[in-house]
Structures are given as structure tokens and as C-alpha cells.
User: What shape does this take?
Amino acid sequence: MAESEKIAYDPITRQRLVETLKRCGVRAGDMVEVHADVRAFECLIGKEETVVDALMDVVTPEGTILMVNRCVANSEPSLWDNPQIVPSMYGVVRNSIPGFDPKNCVLDDSSRVVDNFRHREGVVMSSHPSWSFAAWGASADFLCNQQSLHFPLSEESPIGRLYQRRGKVVLIGEDFEACTCLYLAEHKTACRMITIRGASMKGEDGTSWHKYLDLDISSVPFQKIKVSMIRKNMIKETMLGGCKIHVFSASDAVDEAVAYFSLRTVFDVYR
Assistant: This one.
């Protein structure tokens, strides 16, 4: 490519990300749930390391950062879409999935920020094999110490406690479909069917398969929650280096989602 044809991007540094987060209302001492995808930036110096560093700079150890450590591969194989597994191999697959390891379980490509974050000094993990959370800061233990195996995104979960403490949500290069705290609204309303899931867990006697109850959750309606919140001026939004950043109250978002789901029965949601 000729020199004149090259695209020159405005490089985003750690300090510029810090300043942007502060302008969007993130403060020292805040409790924040973060979803970030560095691929949304045109040119981010330091990539996921910079995102985690900047978040820690802004929130400080007096605040708390929470990220979902979603272990998609540790799940019931009969529910997999990609790849689909032939039924005769379900048992073999269940017995072959490694037992849950919070620091090393496989994450998808969009979770590179989480992967960097969960290995930082002082980060603690919740114990759920499929819906683990990583937290750092003053209330990290409070958020992660009592997540239930059954209904892992209910009131007895890190996002349930985030809601109770009126924390914030920060979306960096992610949209509302990634907003884990909104699943709490599906537990607060009777809009979803109950299903049985499973995961591989390590115990004193080795690795074994555990079934647990959950809701048949879906993030499909979350864009409608976003539209409602924008209309009520509940979201601070900006662009930085080609990446869209949203900051808003977790409790406001969950309450808006509860209002949406409360007007619908389980049959309406599945139409």
C-alpha cells in the first residue's frame, strides 16, 4: 500500500480512556459492572491491558469492578448450537469437559478483557461453573462469596448484589445484549420458563457432572430496554477512537427491564 493510501488513526491511550470514563460519570469508589471489547477501537495502545488499567485508575481500590467470567464451553452439550452434538455422544462430552477452573476456563474472543482482568492481583472469583464472576476492589468478596448453583443470575448472585448497592454499568465497545445485570429482571418477573442445565465441577472425589435449575434467559429484548432508557435520559454515551461507550445505573436498567417484562406473560415473550 502506498504511503498516501494508509489510514492514520488517532491513538487512544490509557490516560485518554481514563478522562473519557470520568466525563461519563465513573467515579472513584464506584461499583461498576464492565463489559468491554477492545476490537471496537480503531487504535487502542495496550489493548485489553490498557482497558483494565484505566478502569482501576478511575474506580480506585475504594471502588469495585465486576466482570462476568462466562464459561460457555462448560455447559449442557444437548443445548449446544455451534457445534451441535449427536445425542449418542452427550454422555461422552459431559465426562470429557474439564472441571470448572475460574482462572483458566476457556472464554470466547470477545472476553479478552475479562481474561486479563481475572489474572490481576487481588481479583476474586465466584464459584459458579458456567456463570462465574470476577471482582476487584473494596466489595469484591461481598459480590462473589455466595452465588447459588441454581438460578445463578438471580438475587443471590453478584449482579443481584450490584443492584442492591446501586452500582453502575460500563459498556465499552459492547451493546445492551452483553449487559448481564439485565438478566436479573427476568428472575424478578414471571416471563421465562425454568430449564435444567449442567456443568462439570471439581470436588474432593474428582471431576463430576452437576445439574442445576435456571431460567431460559434471553438478551433479545435488551435493545428495547436501551430505547426506553435513552428516551428517559438515563444513559451517558460517547465515542472514543471509533468505540462507543455507555455508562448508566444498574438499578435503573434492571427496573426498566422489570417494567417491560411485567407487562408480558411468559407466552408473550416466546411469541
